[in-house]
């Protein structure tokens, strides 16, 4: 496999297990020569789960630190620790989201309380800005880099059950554009991959997805569901020099589902 990312290193945030989009992204980045550092949600069980998934990628002694992205001091701490241990920061992968499961049920958007609405935006969207700010000095010193986050079609159109997460994803996509416009002068690119439905811990919290895979297989232009490696490949392209002219974009990797009108 071509060494598109030889000599590049960065942080991957969002591996819960081997099904996580972040896992597929890290696998592809690593296969193309990148060095990845990782975080896990605080707690022994979470650490064990993330470590096992990273080990399964063939990385026996990963750089792995706890991070609750809802806490500014933890974000700053992780990026400072990374900067001590790695000479360059070429990419940051943001692959996290959170909203209360009860609010992700069909017909329940209107029940969303203020606090939960704000917390979904906080963890799922604001954190991109916080990661970008923490990454900026080292990325600038590295001559630029690539910040990448994961979104979904429910940011743009109503997908039953996606509810407050759709609002958070719209905010995430817009946050990426503003960051891209401010960070471009330092060679930092900020992009979004809008991934198709993939069965993961996070997506299983969304109601109304029961028949999603069958429907996509029938309707998608490519007549199949998206695979983690599809997103991994696009992330690799964006993090590599092949993507050097792309910033502020939301790129769909969904087997074409988003182009359909009916
Ligand atoms: N699975 C899909 O169908 C799909 C489609 C499009 C976009 N996405 C997006 O992809 C990203 C990854 O989700 P996934 O589907 O791989 O599920 P996942 O459950 O494997 O990953 C979600 C991650 O978010 C992390 N997280 C939640 N709250 C956090 C916090 N406070 N601090 C740090 N980390 C926190 C979890 O630990 C987990 O690792 C999310 O942004 C999700 O919205 C998923």
Bound molecule types: nicotinamide-adenine-dinucleotide
Number of strands: 7
Number of helices: 7
Please state the overall shape, judged from the principal axes of the Cα atoms: globular
Annotated CATH homologous superfamily: NAD(P)-binding Rossmann-like Domain
Task: Kindly describe this structure.
The chain is α/β, with parallel strands linked by helices and 262 residues long. The protein has one domain (71-259): NAD(P)-binding Rossmann-like Domain (Rossmann fold, 3-Layer(aba) Sandwich). Helix content is 40%, strand content 14%. It contains 7 helices and 7 strands. The chain has helices at 21-31, 44-55, 72-85, 114-141, 163-183, 212-219, 228-239, and strands spanning 9-13, 35-40, 64-66, 91-94, 145-151, 188-195, 250-253. A 7-stranded parallel β-sheet has the order 3-2-1-4-5-6-7, sandwiched between helices. The termini are far apart. The model has no long low-confidence stretch (mean pLDDT 97). The protein binds nicotinamide-adenine-dinucleotide.
């Amino acid at each position: 496999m071509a060494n598109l990312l030889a000599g590049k290193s960065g942080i991957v945030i969002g591996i819960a297990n081997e099904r996580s989009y972040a896992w597929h992204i890290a696998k592809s980045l690593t296969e193309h020569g990148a060095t990845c550092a990782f975080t896990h949600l605080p707690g022994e069980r979470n650490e064990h789960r993330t470590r096992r998934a990273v080990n399964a990628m063939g990385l026996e002694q990963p750089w792995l630190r706890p991070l609750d992205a809802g806490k500014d001091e933890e974000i700053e701490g992780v990026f400072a620790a990374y900067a001590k241990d790695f000479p360059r920061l070429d990419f940051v992968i943001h692959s996290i989201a959170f909203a209360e499961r009860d609010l992700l049920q069909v017909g329940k958007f209107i029940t969303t309380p203020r606090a939960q609405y704000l917390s979904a935006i906080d963890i799922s969207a604001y954190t991109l800005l916080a990661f970008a700010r923490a990454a900026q000095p080292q990325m600038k010193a590295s001559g630029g880099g690539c910040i990448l986050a994961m979104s979904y079609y429910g940011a743009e159109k109503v997908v039953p059950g996606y509810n407050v997460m759709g609002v958070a994803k719209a905010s995430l996509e817009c946050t990426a554009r503003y960051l891209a416009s401010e960070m471009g002068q330092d060679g930092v690119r900020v992009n979004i991959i809008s991934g198709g439905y993939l069965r993961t811990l996070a997506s299983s919290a969304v109601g109304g997805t029961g028949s999603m895979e069958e429907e996509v297989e029938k309707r998608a232009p490519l007549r199949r569901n998206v695979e983690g490696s599809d997103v991994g490949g696009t992330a690799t392209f964006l993090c590599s020099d092949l993507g050097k002219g792309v910033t502020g974009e939301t790129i769909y990797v969904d087997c074409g589902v988003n182009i359909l009108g009916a």
